[in-house]
């Protein structure tokens, strides 16, 4: 039997959405990722099908034909009930450099003051643990990273900026994330990552997946400039290792 109660609904003409209990929980996301992998390995191969996981849902999209719910509902329920013992998806821990220089961390001093910490303490708290990728959205490649220490929780800015620099690392409520491109945004900016996390010319465009983990480490402004050049010419190698709970 599946670990959670799921609901299955049509989602437009070519998709079905499967939802789990409506709460942000690591066990739920892990169950979704494992079910996604099980479906890819059994009845929903890549190419014809695209499976998109996030928070408490899995969207199953057919890239070629319309999808009738009646045809797939029993199949999906049966697959979920029988997935126990299937090979879990491989998950990765990615180490990403961040420069917390105040020229990048334009809200860092304000955040530190609000949290009654020093800037150094904020940086230490932000880099000391991995974050779980719960979803990728509002911009292509924008990762919603959960697991932020409660001591770093700050609300979104009351008035979003019209232009947030590419690579900006921000805080908002219980999450942290990286802006993959210049855009408007209301997160509190505390640093910048010189390594692009989204590149439309690559396959996949975003090398990090939902269910992976990201840990930041601090670099100097000189190291930032070097890594940015290395990334531009394609010689920067991102540190990663397989994640085991």
From TrEMBL:
<dbReference type="Pfam" id="PF02682">
    <property type="entry name" value="CT_C_D"/>
</dbReference>
<dbReference type="GO" id="GO:0005524">
    <property type="term" value="F:ATP binding"/>
</dbReference>
<dbReference type="InterPro" id="IPR010016">
    <property type="entry name" value="PxpB"/>
</dbReference>
<dbReference type="InterPro" id="IPR003833">
    <property type="entry name" value="CT_C_D"/>
</dbReference>
<dbReference type="InterPro" id="IPR029000">
    <property type="entry name" value="Cyclophilin-like_dom_sf"/>
</dbReference>
<keyword id="KW-0547">Nucleotide-binding</keyword>
<feature type="domain" description="Carboxyltransferase">
    <location>
        <begin position="6"/>
        <end position="208"/>
    </location>
</feature>
<keyword id="KW-0067">ATP-binding</keyword>
<dbReference type="GO" id="GO:0017168">
    <property type="term" value="F:5-oxoprolinase (ATP-hydrolyzing) activity"/>
</dbReference>
<protein>
    <submittedName>
        <fullName>5-oxoprolinase subunit PxpB</fullName>
        <ecNumber>3.5.2.9</ecNumber>
    </submittedName>
</protein>
<keyword id="KW-0378">Hydrolase</keyword>
């Amino acid at each position: 039997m599946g670990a959670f109660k799921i609901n299955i609904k049509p989602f437009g003409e070519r998709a079905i959405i499967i939802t789990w209990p409506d709460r942000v929980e690591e066990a739920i996301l892990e169950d979704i990722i494992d079910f996604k992998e099980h479906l890819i390995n059994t009845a929903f191969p890549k190419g014809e099908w695209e499976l998109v996981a996030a928070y408490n849902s899995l969207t199953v999209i057919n890239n070629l034909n319309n999808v009738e719910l009646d045809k797939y509902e029993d199949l999906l329920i049966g697959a979920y009930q029988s997935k126990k013992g299937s090979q879990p998806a491989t998950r990765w821990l990615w180490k990403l450099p961040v420069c917390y220089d105040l020229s990048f961390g334009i809200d860092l001093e304000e955040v530190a003051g609000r949290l009654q910490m020093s800037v150094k303490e904020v940086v230490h708290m932000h880099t000391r643990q991995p974050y779980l990728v719960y979803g990728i959205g509002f911009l292509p490649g924008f990762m919603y990273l959960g697991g932020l220490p409660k001591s770093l929780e700050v609300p979104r800015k009351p008035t979003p900026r019209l232009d947030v620099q590419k690579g900006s690392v921000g805080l908002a409520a219980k999450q942290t994330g990286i802006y993959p491109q210049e855009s408007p945004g209301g997160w509190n900016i505390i640093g910048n990552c010189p390594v692009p996390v989204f590149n439309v010319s690559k396959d996949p465009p975003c090398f990090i997946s939902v269910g992976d983990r990201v840990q930041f480490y601090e670099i100097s402004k000189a190291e930032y400039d070097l890594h940015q050049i290395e990334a531009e010419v394609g010689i920067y190698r991102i540190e990663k290792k397989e994640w085991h709970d």
